[in-house]
Write a structure and sequence with these properties.
Strand content: 15-25%
Helix content: 40-55%
Radius of gyration: 17 Å
Distance between the termini: 14 Å
C-alpha cells in the first residue's frame, strides 16, 4: 500500500468527482491520503471529508501565502489558539501546511514568520508533526525550527524541491522529506540526486494534488492515484523494488503521523 502524504481533496478541482478520485486511488494501490489545510475557514470542510472517507486524514494550518490574513487573529481568537481548537478532531494528524515562501511573498515576511512560529508552538504543545512548505527561505525556515522549535519540533518538508544543503539540515533536525511528481520532471536531476542519497527511512511520497501531475500525466489534473509514478521512479533511483518503497514510505508515514494509527 502507498500513502499520498499530501493532497488537497477539498479544492474545487475535485468537487464533482471525489468518489471516483478515491476509487482510482484504491485501484492504484494508494490506501490512505492526508488532505492538507491551507486556510482555517476550510478546516471543517477537510474534517468532513475525513469523516466521510475512512481512508482520508486531514491537517490544520495556514499556508504562508495567506499568513497575513490570520496573524492578528481569527474568529476572535489568536491564530495559535484557533489552530489548537481546530486540531481537536480525531482525524487531524498534523499541523500545516505552514512555513515560509519568499519566492512569491504573497504575505509580508514578518507575517509569514509570525504564523510559522504559532504553528511550531502548536505542533509542540499538541505533539503533532509539522507539514512545512518552504521556498527561497531556507535560512529563516531552519532558524525558526531551531529557535522557536528548540530543535524539538518534528515533521516533514513537503513537496521537497530545495537544495542538498537544505535536505541535510532538515534530516539533521529529525524531519522527513517528501517527494512529489516534481521528481519525475525532465529538469529535476539535482532533486533526483537528493532522493537517491536520502535515507530510505526518512522519505515520504505525495502528489500535492491537484497540482504538479507527474510524468507521464503532465498537463492533467493531479490526483492521489498518481502517487505511484513518483514511487516507481524512487524505486529505480534507490535500486529497490516497488514493494520495498511501498513498505518503507508507508511505515515512515505512520512513524511520523503516529496519531493516524490510533484512528485508523
Amino acid at each position: 500500500m502507498l500513502i499520498d502524504s499530501h493532497c488537497h481533496l477539498n479544492f474545487p478541482e475535485f468537487a464533482s468527482d471525489l468518489d471516483d478520485v478515491l476509487s482510482r486511488a484504491k485501484e492504484n494501490g494508494v490506501g490512505l491520503m492526508l488532505t492538507v489545510n491551507t486556510k482555517l475557514e476550510q478546516a471543517k470542510d477537510l474534517q468532513a471529508i475525513a469523516d466521510r472517507y475512512s481512508e482520508v486524514y486531514c491537517s490544520v494550518g495556514v499556508h504562508p501565502h495567506d499568513a497575513a490574513a490570520y496573524v492578528k487573529g481569527y474568529e476572535g481568537d489568536t491564530l495559535f489558539n484557533q489552530i489548537k481548537m481546530l486540531a481537536n478532531h480525531p482525524k487531524v494528524i498534523g499541523i500545516g501546511e505552514t512555513g515560509l515562501d519568499y519566492y512569491y511573498n504573497n504575505s509580508p515576511r514578518v507575517d509569514q514568520i509570525s504564523s510559522f512560529k504559532d504553528h511550531i508552538l502548536a505542533s509542540l504543545e499538541l505533539n503533532l508533526p509539522l507539514i512545512i512548505h518552504t521556498r527561497d527561505a531556507d535560512e529563516d525556515t531552519i532558524a525558526c525550527l531551531k529557535d522557536v522549535g528548540q530543535s524539538k519540533a518534528k515533521g516533514v518538508f513537503h513537496c521537497f524541491s530545495g537544495s542538498a544543503e537544505l535536505a541535510q539540515q532538515a534530516l539533521e533536525l529529525g524531519f522527513y522529506i517528501s517527494f512529489s511528481g516534481i521528481l519525475t520532471f525532465k529538469k529535476a536531476d539535482a532533486l533526483r540526486q537528493i532522493a537517491q542519497e536520502a535515507p530510505i527511512e526518512r522519505i515520504l511520497v505525495e502528489t500535492d494534488a491537484p497540482f504538479l501531475a507527474p510524468v507521464p500525466q503532465r498537463g492533467k489534473r493531479n490526483e492521489p492515484a498518481f502517487t505511484r509514478y513518483t514511487a516507481e521512479l524512487l524505486a529505480n533511483l534507490k535500486g529497490l523494488s516497488y514493494s520495498a518503497i511501498e513498505t518503507a514510505t508507508t511505515n515512515n508515514f505512520f512513524s511520523l503521523f503516529s496519531k493516524a494509527r490510533l484512528v485508523s
